[in-house]
Amino acid sequence: MLVFVVAAAVATGLGTLALWPTEEGVTSATESAAEIGLATERYGATVQEVRDGPCSYSSDDNPRNCRHVTAVLDEGPAVGSAIALTEFDLGFAATAPRLTVDQKIILGYEPATDFYFYADADRRTPLAWLSALFAVFVIALGRRRGVLALVGMVGTVAVLVAFVAPSILDGNDPLLVAVVAASAIAFVSLYLIHGFNSTTTVALAGTLSALGLTLALSWAFFELSHFTGLASEEALTLPFITGGIDLASLILGGAVLGALGALDDITVTQAALVAELHYRNPGLGTRQLVASGVRVGREHIASTVNTLLLAYAGASFPLLMLLAVSDQSMVMVANSELIAVEIVRTLCGSIGLVAAVPITTLLAALVADPSPRPSPPAC
C-alpha cells in the first residue's frame, strides 16, 4: 500500500510539472473575452439617488417608466465621481435591480468607451463576515485540526485557481488536469490535516482507489451518453474565449473533482474507525474489523448518497422549476443533457463512495495488527 501511495505521489508530482500553466492561455483568453465585452473592470460604488419616472424614449403613444439611478464611485481612477447609470425599463420588472439609497453596488467599466454600467450588488462585506464566522466555528470545535482544515481549504482553492483553470486554458486535456489536481489536493489536504501516519495513508490509498473507480465509470458512461458539454450557457461562451477546449472532457473532469470531497469524508472516517476499534480491542481479527467497519460504513453511505443527490438538485433548482412546467415526461426530462449529466455524476460518484467503504476498511484492517502485543518481561 505504501508503494502504491508513493508511486501515486511521484506520478502526481510529474503530472503537475508537465501540466503546470505558462499563463499564455490565460492572457490570450482574457484578451478574447475583452474583445467580445466579457472582461470589464469592476469598481465599488454607493447608490446616491433612485428615482422612477418616464424613460428617455417614452412618448404619448408609448408611455414607458424607467428607474433612474445615480451612484458615487468608491474605487477606481474616478473615485468620488457621480455616475448616472443606464435607465432600467420597469416594464421588465424582473430584470430591474431593486436598489436603495446608500446601498453598495458594483459598477462595470469599459475603458474604450468610458462607459459605466450596473454589474451587481456588492456582497463582499457580508461574504467576509460569513467567512469569518465559519472560521470561528471550525476553529472553536476543531482547534488545531480546525486551523489545519482551513489551511487545507485555502490550498484547495489555490490549486483550482492557480493550476486547474490556467492549465486547461493552456490547451491541456481537462480530464488529465482534473485527475492530477484531485490527486494533489488529496495528498496535501489529508496529510496536512490528519498528519503523516498509517491511518492517513490508509485513507489516502482508499481515496485514490475509489477515485480511480469513479473516473473509470464516469468516463465510460459519459461516452455512452454522448455528452457534448454544450448544454449550459457558460459552456456555449467558452469557445468564443478560447478554442480547442474539449467541453465533454471538461465536465467529466468536474465530475472527478466533485467526487473527491465526499470520498475524503468516507475514507478518513473508515480508516479512523478501524484504527479506533483495533486500539480499543487489539484482539479483534481482520475479518472482525472489516465486518464492524463495513457495518458502520453502511449507515454513513446511506446518508451521504442522498446528500450528493440533494447537493446537485439544489444547485440546479431553478432549472428543475423550468423543467417541471415543460409538459414532458420524467424520462424525457432526465434525457436532457443538463439533467443527464447530473444523474451520471451522482450515480458514478455514489458508486465510488459505496466502493470506498469496503476498500478502505479492508486496507485499514490489514494494516492494523490483529494480534495483541506481548507484554514486556517483568523486571
Folded structure, characterized:
By secondary structure, the chain is α+β, with helices and mostly antiparallel strands. It is built from twelve helices and six strands. Strands 1, 2, 3, 4, 5 and 6 form a six-stranded antiparallel sheet that branches. β2 and β3 (82-84) form a beta hairpin. It is elongated. The model has no long low-confidence stretch (mean pLDDT 84).
How are the SSEs ordered, and which strands pair?
Elements: H1 2-19, H2 24-35, E1 41-54, E2 65-73, E3 82-84, E4 88-89, E5 104-110, E6 115-121, H3 124-142, H4 144-169, H5 174-194, H6 198-225, H7 233-241, H8 247-280, H9 286-315, H10 317-324, H11 330-335, H12 337-367
Antiparallel strand pairs: 1-2, 1-5, 2-3, 2-4, 5-6
Descriptors:
single chain; 379 residues; alpha+beta; 6-stranded antiparallel beta sheet; 12 helices; 6 strands
Find the structural class using helix and strand composition.
Answer: alpha+beta
| Cα shape | elongated
Helicity, as a percent range: 55-70%
Largest sheet: 6 strands, antiparallel
Computed Rg: 26 Å
Approximate strand percentage: 5-15%
Low-confidence blocks of residues: none
What's the total helix number? 12
User: For the terminal residues, how far apart are their CA atoms?
Assistant: 38 Å
